[in-house]
Amino acid sequence: MVTRILIADDHSVVRQGLRMFLALDPDLEVVAEATDGAEALRLAREFQPDVVLMDLLMPAMDGIAATQEIRRELPDTEVLALTSVLEDASVVSAVRAGAIGYLLKNTEADELRRAIKAAAAGQVQLSPEAAARLMREVRAPESPETLTERETDVLRLLAQGKANKEIAQLLSIGEKTVKTHVSNILAKLGVQSRTQAALYAARIGMVTIHQVSGGR
């Protein structure tokens, strides 16, 4: 199955570079390019891609505001934030806005392709450094609604970095059912992304930070 991608970056060289090496993988297809957040939102509505590669610092509407709108309007579209520095506070804001994770712009091509596919499959994967930083910065939701037993099972597996397909197999349920459970979990916890849900699971001791960061 081909993963459809929207690239949002205000630097044409970056967009060209991304398009060039993503084209080397037959499982990935760049369907559109945006030069700012407002255009990213418009094109996301039009093309409904599986994944948006979102630069954070852009004119007109920044990547954080665009991420928040895309996640609110298009819950099936995952957003991967792209940034130049790990320490940038805007990375934390991007995850709060609903990004499933983030990548540094010096990420190797193979790693980027793998991360895009993982995001499309609903996998939460953070580096240990990123997970530790986000645990400090992203607060657990205030008094969330109680999850059902099955939702708790889904959240535990999601937080361990499992993709929807794996969760479905492990729990002997359909992939669409997993997606429904994930939507319910996000709504009950009052969060925008699987990453935030995974961090919540780590914060309450359901899983360890080591598990959230894939044990890397």
Structure characteristics:
five-stranded parallel beta sheet, 216 residues, alpha/beta, Arc Repressor Mutant, subunit A, Rossmann fold, 11 helices, 52% helix
Quick recap of the structure?
InterPro entries: CheY-like_superfamily, NreC/VraR/RcsB-like_REC, Sig_transdc_resp-reg_C-effctor, Sig_transdc_resp-reg_receiver, Tscrpt_reg_LuxR_C, WalR-like. Helices cover 52% and strands 13% of the residues.
Q: How many β strands by DSSP?
A: 5
Biggest β-sheet: strands ordered side by side in the sheet = 2-1-3-4-5
Average pLDDT, all residues: 88
Termini gap: 27 Å
List the helices and strands and how they pair.
Elements: E1 3-8, H1 12-22, E2 28-34, H2 37-47, E3 51-55, H3 63-73, E4 78-83, H4 89-97, E5 101-104, H5 109-120, H6 128-137, H7 149-159, H8 164-171, H9 175-189, H10 194-203, H11 209-212
Parallel strand pairs: 1-2, 1-3, 3-4, 4-5
Helix pairs in contact: 2-3, 3-4, 7-9, 7-10, 8-9
Description of the molecule:
- With 216 residues, the chain is α/β, with parallel strands linked by helices.
- It folds into 2 domains: 3-120, Rossmann fold (3-Layer(aba) Sandwich), CATH 3.40.50; 137-212, Arc Repressor Mutant, subunit A (Orthogonal Bundle).
- The chain contains 11 helices and 5 strands, in the order E-H-E-H-E-H-E-H-E-H-H-H-H-H-H-H.
- It has helices spanning 12-22, 37-47, 63-73, 89-97, 109-120, 128-137, 149-159, 164-171, 175-189, 194-203, 209-212; strands at residues 3-8, 28-34, 51-55, 78-83, 101-104.
- Strands 2-1-3-4-5 form a 5-stranded parallel β-sheet, sandwiched between helices.
- Helix 4 links the parallel strand 4 (78-83) and strand 5 (101-104).
- Helix 2 (37-47) runs parallel beside helix 3 (63-73) and helix 8 (164-171) crosses helix 9.
- The model has no long low-confidence stretch (mean pLDDT 88).
- Residues 4-120 form the Response regulatory domain.
- Residues 140-205 form the HTH luxR-type domain.
- The modification 4-aspartylphosphate is found at residue 55.
